[in-house]
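Preliminary data (for renewal application), manganese (II) ion complex.
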Amino acid sequence: MMTRRHALQKTALAASALSVAPLPAQLQAQGAAAAPAGPFRLPPLAYAFDALEPHIDARTMEIHHDRHHQAYVTNLNKAVAGQAAWESKGVEAIVRQIDEVPEGIRTAVRNNGGGHYNHSLFWQMMKKNGGGQPKGDLAQAVDKAFGSFDKFKEEFSGAAMKVFGSGWVWLIVEQKQLKVVSTPNQDTPLMKGHQPLLGIDVWEHAYYLKYQNKRVDYVTAFFNVVNWDFVADRYEKFKG
Ligand code: MN
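Predicted structure:
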Protein backbone atom coordinates (compact mmCIF):
# COMPACT_ATOMS: atom_id res chain seq x y z
CA MET A 1 0.00 0.00 0.00
CA MET A 2 1.31 3.42 -0.93
CA THR A 3 1.92 5.86 1.88
CA ARG A 4 0.33 9.29 1.65
CA ARG A 5 3.73 10.90 1.06
CA HIS A 6 4.53 8.55 -1.80
CA ALA A 7 1.11 9.21 -3.24
CA LEU A 8 1.72 12.95 -3.02
CA GLN A 9 5.17 12.70 -4.62
CA LYS A 10 3.71 10.64 -7.42
CA THR A 11 0.91 13.18 -7.89
CA ALA A 12 3.42 16.04 -7.87
CA LEU A 13 5.62 14.29 -10.47
CA ALA A 14 2.65 13.61 -12.66
CA ALA A 15 1.55 17.23 -12.34
CA SER A 16 4.97 18.63 -13.30
CA ALA A 17 5.32 16.24 -16.22
CA LEU A 18 2.04 17.44 -17.63
CA SER A 19 2.74 21.10 -16.75
CA VAL A 20 -0.59 21.39 -15.03
CA ALA A 21 -1.43 23.84 -12.25
CA PRO A 22 0.24 23.32 -8.86
CA LEU A 23 -1.37 21.07 -6.30
CA PRO A 24 -4.28 22.60 -4.44
CA ALA A 25 -3.38 24.15 -1.11
CA GLN A 26 -5.12 21.38 0.77
CA LEU A 27 -2.72 18.83 -0.69
CA GLN A 28 0.32 21.08 -0.40
CA ALA A 29 -0.41 21.46 3.29
CA GLN A 30 -0.23 17.71 3.85
CA GLY A 31 3.54 17.50 4.13
CA ALA A 32 6.88 19.27 3.89
CA ALA A 33 7.68 17.38 0.66
CA ALA A 34 5.02 19.38 -1.14
CA ALA A 35 5.90 22.78 0.40
CA PRO A 36 5.98 25.56 -2.21
CA ALA A 37 8.68 28.19 -2.51
CA GLY A 38 8.48 31.16 -0.18
CA PRO A 39 10.40 32.88 2.57
CA PHE A 40 8.86 31.01 5.49
CA ARG A 41 9.89 27.50 6.56
CA LEU A 42 8.55 25.01 9.09
CA PRO A 43 11.05 24.95 11.98
CA PRO A 44 12.03 21.41 12.95
CA LEU A 45 10.94 20.13 16.36
CA ALA A 46 13.84 20.06 18.83
CA TYR A 47 12.64 16.68 20.14
CA ALA A 48 11.07 13.47 18.88
CA PHE A 49 7.32 13.25 18.29
CA ASP A 50 7.05 10.85 21.24
CA ALA A 51 9.16 12.97 23.64
CA LEU A 52 6.11 14.36 25.43
CA GLU A 53 4.42 10.97 25.94
CA PRO A 54 2.30 10.07 27.79
CA HIS A 55 1.07 13.63 28.31
CA ILE A 56 0.91 14.58 24.64
CA ASP A 57 0.91 11.62 22.27
CA ALA A 58 3.29 11.16 19.35
CA ARG A 59 0.58 10.98 16.68
CA THR A 60 -0.91 14.30 17.80
CA MET A 61 2.54 15.91 17.76
CA GLU A 62 3.28 14.55 14.28
CA ILE A 63 0.00 15.75 12.77
CA HIS A 64 0.09 19.03 14.67
CA HIS A 65 3.64 19.89 13.58
CA ASP A 66 3.92 18.33 10.13
CA ARG A 67 0.44 19.13 8.88
CA HIS A 68 -1.20 21.92 10.87
CA HIS A 69 1.91 24.06 11.41
CA GLN A 70 3.08 23.29 7.86
CA ALA A 71 -0.27 24.49 6.55
CA TYR A 72 0.13 27.85 8.33
CA VAL A 73 3.62 28.21 6.81
CA THR A 74 2.43 27.23 3.33
CA ASN A 75 -0.54 29.57 3.44
CA LEU A 76 1.54 32.45 4.85
CA ASN A 77 3.95 32.02 1.93
CA LYS A 78 1.02 32.13 -0.47
CA ALA A 79 -0.51 35.18 1.20
CA VAL A 80 2.67 37.32 0.99
CA ALA A 81 3.73 36.11 -2.48
CA GLY A 82 4.43 39.15 -4.66
CA GLN A 83 4.29 41.58 -1.70
CA ALA A 84 7.99 42.43 -1.52
CA ALA A 85 7.71 44.53 1.65
CA TRP A 86 6.12 41.65 3.56
CA GLU A 87 7.99 38.72 2.00
CA SER A 88 11.24 40.11 3.40
CA LYS A 89 10.07 40.54 7.01
CA GLY A 90 10.32 37.95 9.74
CA VAL A 91 7.09 36.50 11.08
CA GLU A 92 7.51 38.34 14.41
CA ALA A 93 7.67 41.71 12.61
CA ILE A 94 4.64 40.76 10.53
CA VAL A 95 2.40 39.90 13.47
CA ARG A 96 3.52 43.06 15.32
CA GLN A 97 2.46 45.15 12.31
CA ILE A 98 -0.65 43.21 11.39
CA ASP A 99 -2.76 46.39 11.12
CA GLU A 100 -0.43 47.70 8.39
CA VAL A 101 -0.71 44.59 6.21
CA PRO A 102 -2.63 45.36 2.99
CA GLU A 103 -6.32 44.75 3.52
CA GLY A 104 -6.62 42.22 0.71
CA ILE A 105 -4.25 39.78 2.42
CA ARG A 106 -4.64 40.87 6.05
CA THR A 107 -6.98 38.11 7.19
CA ALA A 108 -4.85 35.40 5.57
CA VAL A 109 -1.68 36.89 7.08
CA ARG A 110 -3.35 37.29 10.48
CA ASN A 111 -4.48 33.66 10.59
CA ASN A 112 -1.44 32.03 9.02
CA GLY A 113 1.24 34.41 10.28
CA GLY A 114 -0.27 34.13 13.74
CA GLY A 115 -0.43 30.35 13.37
CA HIS A 116 3.22 30.15 12.29
CA TYR A 117 4.41 32.45 15.07
CA ASN A 118 2.31 30.83 17.83
CA HIS A 119 3.28 27.26 16.94
CA SER A 120 6.98 28.12 16.53
CA LEU A 121 6.90 29.29 20.16
CA PHE A 122 4.60 26.54 21.41
CA TRP A 123 7.01 23.71 20.47
CA GLN A 124 9.75 25.41 22.49
CA MET A 125 7.48 26.00 25.48
CA MET A 126 7.38 22.22 26.02
CA LYS A 127 10.11 19.63 26.53
CA LYS A 128 10.71 16.04 27.51
CA ASN A 129 10.67 15.67 31.30
CA GLY A 130 9.38 19.20 31.66
CA GLY A 131 6.89 20.44 34.19
CA GLY A 132 7.56 21.31 37.80
CA GLN A 133 7.62 24.96 38.76
CA PRO A 134 9.44 28.08 37.62
CA LYS A 135 12.52 29.15 39.58
CA GLY A 136 14.28 32.41 40.39
CA ASP A 137 12.99 35.77 39.16
CA LEU A 138 10.09 34.22 37.27
CA ALA A 139 8.92 32.30 40.34
CA GLN A 140 8.95 35.52 42.36
CA ALA A 141 7.07 37.39 39.63
CA VAL A 142 4.43 34.63 39.46
CA ASP A 143 3.96 34.76 43.24
CA LYS A 144 3.68 38.55 43.13
CA ALA A 145 1.18 38.61 40.28
CA PHE A 146 -1.02 35.64 41.21
CA GLY A 147 -0.36 34.95 44.90
CA SER A 148 1.26 31.56 44.32
CA PHE A 149 2.19 29.13 41.58
CA ASP A 150 -0.97 27.10 42.31
CA LYS A 151 -3.12 30.20 41.95
CA PHE A 152 -1.44 30.97 38.63
CA LYS A 153 -2.14 27.41 37.44
CA GLU A 154 -5.75 27.79 38.49
CA GLU A 155 -6.16 31.05 36.58
CA PHE A 156 -4.34 29.78 33.47
CA SER A 157 -6.29 26.47 33.44
CA GLY A 158 -9.57 28.25 34.07
CA ALA A 159 -8.93 30.57 31.14
CA ALA A 160 -8.05 27.55 28.96
CA MET A 161 -11.36 25.94 29.85
CA LYS A 162 -13.27 29.13 29.04
CA VAL A 163 -12.01 29.55 25.47
CA PHE A 164 -15.08 28.99 23.30
CA GLY A 165 -14.16 27.52 19.95
CA SER A 166 -10.52 27.73 18.88
CA GLY A 167 -7.83 29.82 20.50
CA TRP A 168 -4.95 30.10 22.91
CA VAL A 169 -4.29 31.05 26.51
CA TRP A 170 -1.11 32.89 27.39
CA LEU A 171 1.04 34.10 30.23
CA ILE A 172 2.24 37.49 29.03
CA VAL A 173 4.27 40.35 30.37
CA GLU A 174 2.60 43.72 29.88
CA GLN A 175 4.23 46.84 31.32
CA LYS A 176 6.30 44.69 33.70
CA GLN A 177 3.18 42.84 34.93
CA LEU A 178 2.47 39.14 34.40
CA LYS A 179 -1.04 38.49 33.15
CA VAL A 180 -3.10 35.61 31.81
CA VAL A 181 -4.93 36.44 28.58
CA SER A 182 -6.64 34.48 25.83
CA THR A 183 -6.66 35.09 22.08
CA PRO A 184 -9.18 33.75 19.55
CA ASN A 185 -8.20 31.70 16.48
CA GLN A 186 -4.49 32.25 15.72
CA ASP A 187 -4.29 35.76 17.11
CA THR A 188 -1.23 36.30 19.26
CA PRO A 189 -0.51 38.71 22.14
CA LEU A 190 2.26 40.24 20.02
CA MET A 191 -0.43 41.71 17.76
CA LYS A 192 -1.03 44.08 20.70
CA GLY A 193 2.66 44.39 21.46
CA HIS A 194 2.61 41.99 24.44
CA GLN A 195 5.29 39.32 24.70
CA PRO A 196 3.97 35.81 25.28
CA LEU A 197 6.01 33.85 27.83
CA LEU A 198 3.96 30.65 27.94
CA GLY A 199 1.00 29.56 25.85
CA ILE A 200 -1.32 26.63 25.46
CA ASP A 201 -3.00 25.76 22.18
CA VAL A 202 -6.62 24.85 22.95
CA TRP A 203 -7.66 24.16 19.37
CA GLU A 204 -9.18 20.67 19.31
CA HIS A 205 -6.40 19.57 16.92
CA ALA A 206 -3.99 19.97 19.85
CA TYR A 207 -5.61 17.28 21.98
CA TYR A 208 -8.62 15.58 20.41
CA LEU A 209 -6.93 12.31 19.35
CA LYS A 210 -5.96 11.46 22.92
CA TYR A 211 -8.37 13.44 25.06
CA GLN A 212 -11.46 13.89 22.85
CA ASN A 213 -13.85 16.28 24.61
CA LYS A 214 -11.89 16.21 27.90
CA ARG A 215 -9.97 19.45 27.45
CA VAL A 216 -9.43 19.66 31.20
CA ASP A 217 -7.28 16.49 31.10
CA TYR A 218 -5.15 17.96 28.31
CA VAL A 219 -4.69 21.21 30.23
CA THR A 220 -3.67 19.26 33.35
CA ALA A 221 -1.26 17.12 31.31
CA PHE A 222 0.27 20.19 29.63
CA PHE A 223 1.72 21.29 32.98
CA ASN A 224 3.82 18.08 32.98
CA VAL A 225 5.66 19.13 29.82
CA VAL A 226 6.14 22.89 30.29
CA ASN A 227 9.68 24.05 29.59
CA TRP A 228 10.05 26.53 32.44
CA ASP A 229 13.66 27.32 31.49
CA PHE A 230 12.44 28.62 28.14
CA VAL A 231 9.66 30.61 29.83
CA ALA A 232 12.16 32.06 32.36
CA ASP A 233 14.55 33.08 29.55
CA ARG A 234 11.73 34.95 27.84
CA TYR A 235 10.79 36.60 31.12
CA GLU A 236 14.37 37.86 31.60
CA LYS A 237 14.39 39.17 28.04
CA PHE A 238 11.04 40.94 28.13
CA LYS A 239 10.37 41.86 31.77
CA GLY A 240 11.54 45.45 31.06
MN1 MN B 1 -2.30 24.16 16.85
